[in-house]
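Entry 14. Structure prediction run on the chain below.
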Amino acid sequence: MENKLVIVEEKCPQNHVCPAVKVCPVGALTQEKFHAPTINYDKCIKCGKCSNFCPKKALVLQTL
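Output returned:
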């Protein structure tokens, strides 16, 4: 089975700097101003660190 990181924008408050961006070990998450983070799927290693760290559970590692 394969995993894919997704952002549930309804859960993301988008009113602050996303703390999960700094947790990503490969720099796959970026954020412009206070918008929801963007995922670079070419860099994402699907480790789940950001999804475990996100206090609002807006980053979800889904099993496909």
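Residues 49-53 form the longest helix (5 residues).
Filed with the rest of this week's runs.
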